[in-house]
Amino acid sequence: MLPDYPLDECIEIIKTADELGFYAAYSVDETWHKDLWVLFAAAARETKQIRFGPNVTHVFLREPTLICQQMATLDELTGGRTEIVVSTGNFGLLSQYKIDWEGQKPLSRLKEAIHVMRTFLSEGAITFDGDFFQYSGLYTFAKPVQDGGIPIKMGAMKGPRSFRTAGEIADGMHQALAYSREAYDYSSGLLREGAERAGRDYASLDNGAWVVTVVSEDSEAAKRAARILVAFYISSMPAEQLARHGIDASELAPVVEALGGGDVKKAISLFEPHYAEKLSLAGTPEEVVEKIKTDLEPAGVNHMILALSDPALVKLFSGEDVPNVPDIRGQLKLVNERVMPAFG
Known about the structure:
Blueprint: H1 7-20, E1 24-27, H2 36-44, E2 51-58, H3 64-78, E3 84-87, H4 91-96, H5 106-123, E4 125-129, E5 134-139, E6 152-156, H6 161-169, E7 172-176, H7 181-197, E8 206-215, H8 219-231, H9 239-243, H10 253-260, H11 264-270, H12 273-278, E9 281-283, H13 285-296, E10 303-308, H14 311-318, H15 328-338
Parallel strand pairs: 1-2, 2-3, 3-6, 6-7, 7-8, 8-9, 8-10
Antiparallel strand pairs: 4-5
Helix pairs in contact: 1-2, 1-15, 2-3, 3-5, 6-7, 10-11
Protein name: LLM class flavin-dependent oxidoreductase
Domain Luciferase-like: 6-303
Keywords: Oxidoreductase
């Protein structure tokens, strides 16, 4: 979820997801949104089984041992219901901080950060002299409580090296903004390759799909809401990822240009429905089930991370109204009643 609703409402959404048996509540760790760590700490005592974690947190703006301190504290607060999804970060956000990540070997930085995090979480102390992070006798009293430790998963989009690396060193991979069979055949193959290269069990890994999702009894209304939201994500998608959806990045350059110039209405009008159909998971519950069963599940996806979007979020981003789409809690109930049963 994007924690952009009033915080009391965010907590009620998480409580509803918990009561309905959803696996986890994730939120992105970005300055653009309200702070997920404070939100999840507040929601922890209001829930019983749902897991919590950043999806994603990052290793340019966040220091790995401080992520560990936060996660271990949250793990104790939730009674062991946490996991981390970590990546290099949103390059658009980094540019706003005037951080030049080019030439800084972001994947190497991420690999080293994961090593640091595993060490610090398991031992509570670290002495390390790496290329990106250095420590001398650093320790913490913040210790995770869950059996086996806190899972550390990787967020990835472009590949191929990031997908392969996730198989080698992480407890899974969540690929963001991918919706096609081609995209997941590609990423799953590399995830498997990395796992086998490292002598690990590919089947034990979390192979997740982070997807913009709108579910409604009114299929066209759901697709319109998704179209508006996805237009804002286009600039985050690498050309290689768009190509795996049959889209040339140059086709969407006018959308990105309009958004960059602050003309939201023009950007949405230029983002034609057939693009949105390829780059979202939207429609009736039955249409959502069909899409997952046709394109994602056969390619090895075993975890759906639904970035549900509702009229309030659409209004916040675009100023536009989208009637006939339930709020987030209503969509959670639709997913629980008519999507989840299709997958056992």
